[in-house]
Amino acid sequence: QVQPVESGGGLVQAGGALRLSCAASGPTLVGYHMGWYRQAPGKEREFVAAVTWESNTAYADSVKGRFTISRDNAKNTVSLQMSSLKPEDTAIYYCYARIGPNDYWGQGTQVTVSA
Predict the structure, then answer these.
(1) Of 27, 51, 60, 77, whose CB has the highest number of CB atoms within 10 Å?
(2) Per-residue confidence at 28, pLDDT binned at 50, 70, 90?
C-alpha cells in the first residue's frame, strides 16, 4: 500500500518561500506520477504541480515561475519549492501518487501566507 506523508508547511509572509516534502511509503514507485494539489477554504481542490517518473513536469498557470517540483525516485520522495508566495497561495497542500486509475493521497499540510 502506498502512503504519502507531507511535511514542511507553515506560516510565511508574502514574498517568502517554503519547501514542501512528501515521502511515500511502500514499494518503489516505478512509473508513478507524483505531485501536489491544494484546497483553500471554501474552494475546490485544485492542481498545483506534477512530475512523472522520468521527471517531466507540469504546473498550474497560477504557480508557473514561482514553484518548482522535483522528485527522488530512489527515496520515493517529491518536493515542492515555493517562492514569491502570495496570500492566495494559502491552502492545505496535498501530495499524491498516481499509477493508472489509482490515486494515493496524503493527509495534507497547511500553508498560510500572510499579507
Answers:
(1) 51
(2) confident
Strands (E) located in the chain: 3-7, 10-13, 18-25, 33-39, 46-51, 57-59, 67-72, 77-82, 91-99, 102-105, 109-114
Q: How far is Cα 9 from Cα 81, in angstroms, rounded to an integer?
A: 11
Which amino acid is present at 89? Answer: D
Residue 46 — pLDDT band, cuts 50, 70, 90? very high
Spatial distance between the Cα atoms of 104 and 46, rounded to a whole number of angstroms: 16
Asked if residue 81 lies in contact with residue 101, where contact means CB atoms within 8 angstroms, the answer is: no
Indicate the residue type of 30. Answer: V
Secondary structure (3-state) at 83 = coil
Task: Return the higher-pLDDT residue of 25 and 113.
Answer: 113
The yes-or-no verdict on residue 88 having pLDDT over 90 is yes
